[in-house]
TrEMBL record:
Record's protein name: RNA 2',3'-cyclic phosphodiesterase
Single GO MF annotation: RNA 2',3'-cyclic 3'-phosphodiesterase activity
Gene3D superfamilies: Cyclic phosphodiesterase (3.90.1140.10)
InterPro entries to which the protein is assigned, alphabetical: Cyclic_Pdiesterase, RNA_CPDase
Cleavable signal peptide: none
The species this protein was found in: Thermus thermamylovorans
Catalytic activity: a 3'-end 2',3'-cyclophospho-ribonucleotide-RNA + H2O = a 3'-end 2'-phospho-ribonucleotide-RNA + H(+)
Location of the motif HXTX 2: 129-132
Length: 180
């Protein structure tokens, strides 16, 4: 199973992000993420055996009890990579709770499944972002979009991703509420 831990977004945050996606829709090279799938990845695990699920679910619940709900903001957009040809157009997320939770998941996964379970996500530093569109063919950059969005992050999830020709299908396997 292809798995990742992520934070999904409430409707009032998804709506303005989906509106901004209209900016790239007119450039055929950009493929927008379906609005109901907009999310912030905390840790990408890649392909894992089904036998790992029990540990991954227990870790999610344990960290959920440990980490408090926190406010998050989205103010603008950016590109990965920033130099050269961009592959991803994202909304930048800010919030004090993202990095500690992502780091605790990394540590927990390393302890439970071994360090090699962390290799799937690559060695790039964690940058909280919500991918809005991926570049599939040559297409221009779009001007930055400014947002004034704020919402309380009250849960995260373990998600299954199934890759299909039309795009991935995400299934939320379990949600982990954060401490109130
Ligand atoms: P992205 O949005 O920046 O592409 C499911 O694929 C989620 O895991 C996506 O949000 C993706 O981030 C993230 N992810 C992180 N590392 C990944 C990798 N090496 N391969 C695929 N997805 C990865």
């Amino acid at each position: 199973m292809r798995l990742f831990y992520a934070i999904f977004l409430p409707e009032e945050v998804r709506r303005p992000l989906a509106e901004a996606q209209g900016q790239v829709a007119r450039y055929r090279g950009w493929k927008g993420v379906a609005p109901h799938q907009l999310h912030l990845t905390l840790l990408f695990l890649g392909e894992r055996p089904e036998g790992d699920l029990e540990d991954l679910l227990a870790l999610g619940h344990r960290l959920g009890r440990l980490f408090p709900t926190f406010p998050a903001r989205i103010r603008g957009t950016g590109y990965f990579p920033n130099e050269g040809t961009p592959r991803v157009w994202f909304a930048k997320a800010e919030g004090e709770g993202f990095a500690p939770l992502a780091e605790a998941l990394r540590q927990g996964v390393a302890e439970l499944l071994g360090e090699e379970a962390l290799l799937a996500g690559g060695d790039k530093p964690f940058k909280p972002h919500i991918t809005l569109a991926r570049r599939k063919a040559p297409a221009p950059r779009v001007p930055p979009v400014v947002f004034g969005l704020e919402w309380p992050v009250a849960e995260f999830a373990l998600v299954r991703s199934e890759l299909r020709p039309k795009g991935p299908i995400y299934t939320l396997l379990e949600k982990f509420p954060l401490r109130g």
